[in-house]
Amino acid sequence: MNAQAMNAQGMREVDAILLAGPTASGKSELAARLAERVPIEIVSVDSSQVYRGLDVGSAKPDAETRARIPHHLIDIREPCDTYSAGEFVADAIAAIYDIRSRGRMPVLVGGTMLYFNALVHGIAALPLADPAVRKDIDERARALGWPALHAELARIDPEAAARIHPNDPQRIQRALEVYAVSGRPISAWQRDTSPASGLRFRRDALVPGDRTRLHERIEQRFLAMMSQGFLAEVEKLRARPDIQKCSVAMRAVGYRQLSAHLAGEYDLDEAVRRAIAASRQLAKRQMTWIRADAGWRAWEPFDPEVCERWVVEAAFVCRAAG
């Protein structure tokens, strides 16, 4: 594609490039290839990488990669801290303006589609978190299980329950909390949203056509994480004296299953099997988010020619933006 054709498609006037996709689809590798050609900085769009100590299991870029390519929104919270989509939007917008002020292109890379959606479409001014309400929800979840609380959510807010997986405790908790605090379903709050940043984005998403191959990559990556010390990482986190408060970070896929193994709920082989299955379910949900939003341009990540074309186009955008 020549420069004139690219400009006709509106590729010049962007403030940031967004690169989304399911877990293990190759987003970070593709962004690194772009960084070899043009000056970019990466903004992580990952709800686990924000936490210090969640390194192996979140596929956090290593020190060498981060020294070579500046990264943002990594290691900005302790595992027992909360981090909301609203906080992400504020932090991401600040990072975008900061990076652009240095003449570089921000490339937002990750798979936390809730964060991408909040950045692109806006976020509702939801009620503030209520620790007492959250504690009550957590206690009921321990007694009844999160699927039971998902069923409760389905009774009070069918629209939200349809979007939230029964094994997604963080979002179930937040939806129930909002209703308990305000008496209004979270889906009603979310309808009252509008984009507020005024930023212009190029939105690309890696969408594998071969789901079997994606599943194989997910399994291979998880087994590689295990060989890199993932279990020891979870043991170290569980040894923290404040671990009982670390409800959000430790619910992440992989961490949750390995933590349950260490608590004696099942053996290690079963924990690995469950973690791989949960990772595949996560990938399915990520692709559902992408396909439901026509604003994403889909790219086949397992086709080398397609990947090269993405790098060429993205590099052109970066150069055109100055």
Q: Domains counted in the coordinates: how many? A: 2
What is the highest CATH level, the class of the largest domain?
Alpha Beta
Would you identify the CATH H-level superfamily of the largest domain?
P-loop containing nucleotide triphosphate hydrolases
Question: Which percent range fits the helix content?
Answer: 40-55%
- Write the CATH fold name of the largest domain: Rossmann fold
Order of helices and strands: HEHEHEHEHHHHHHEHHHHEH
Radius of gyration over all CA atoms, rounded: 20 Å
Oligomer: single chain
* Widest sheet, order of strands: 3-2-4-1-5-6
Into which percentage range does the β-strand content fall?
A: 5-15%
The largest sheet, given as strand count, sense and whether it forms a barrel, is: 6 strands, parallel
Going by helix content, strand content and strand pairing, the class is alpha/beta
Per CATH, the architecture of the largest domain is 3-Layer(aba) Sandwich
Tally the helices: what do you get? 15
Gap between N and C termini: 20 Å
Mean pLDDT metric: 91
Note the overall shape: globular
Unreliable sequence segments: 1-12
How many distinct beta strands? Answer: 6
